[in-house]
Amino acid sequence: MNVVCIGAHPDDAEFHAGGSAVKWAQLGHRVVFVSLTNGDIGHHAMGGGVLAQRRRAEALRSARIGGVEDVVLDHHDGELDPSLELRREVVRLIRRYEADLVLTHRPFDYHPDHRYTGIVVQDAAFMVTVPQFCPDVPALRENPIFLYVFDPFQKPVPFSPDIAVDVTDVMDVKYAMFDAMTSQAYEWLPWLAGTLDTVPEDEAGRRRWLEQAWAPRFLGATDACRAGLERWYGAAASEIRYAEAFEICEYGRRPSEEEIRELFPFLPR
Predict the structure, then answer these.
(1) pTM to 2 decimal places
(2) What is the pLDDT of residue 158?
(3) Can you give the pLDDT at residue 269?
(4) Which residue stretches of the chain have pLDDT < 50?
(5) What is the Cα–Cα distance from 106 to 165, expressed in whole angstroms?
(6) What pLDDT, on the 0 to 100 scale, is given for residue 246?
(7) Distance between CA 11 and CA 15 in Å, rounded?
């Protein structure tokens, strides 16, 4: 199985689907994290090509920890535009990796790059099957299933946790993937949150700090998706600590329950 997770920045796929990706990779499936921008403004003290190179290296290091592949495109951070040319790029990517499953942002989000990533992937959802669109890469004979990753925004419509996965057993790997993204985990995101002065200098201390700082966000997302967990895990859902959830996009193939279980083989039977 080929899973392609298309995020706006290096760290988006890791944050939203890192645990599920590890589970797929551990079972031998191919997982590819794609960032449509190079992240060249995602820092308070550095930017441009130097930051883009740093973030690309961090994303590669993180991917190796998770057992996934990583692709970072060279569009400027903060300037993503759902253009026809970007649609062509995304169509070619999905085809080249022969995706069975594509994950991306919903087009309802605080960040314009996230919104436009969701839009351009939606625009590509049908076109990946059209042979005369980007004929240089063979069209897919079967439309992939497209899923949105979780977000907390309620308007115009809230996220629907159609599929929810217990990732508690791989959170140590997910945290290790974030730990590899030093510029984000220990610099930029703490600076945005006003907590940069609380980040320890030693490696072990930083790792403990990372888990303490991020746990509330992951726990909150799990609680928000508890209904999805109950659908797939039944009574055991109340005991699940960390989960990742996905909403089915109507523009791709609509999976049956049996197909969902095939695509997510770690869901309980």
Answers:
(1) 0.96
(2) 96
(3) 85
(4) none
(5) 18
(6) 98
(7) 6
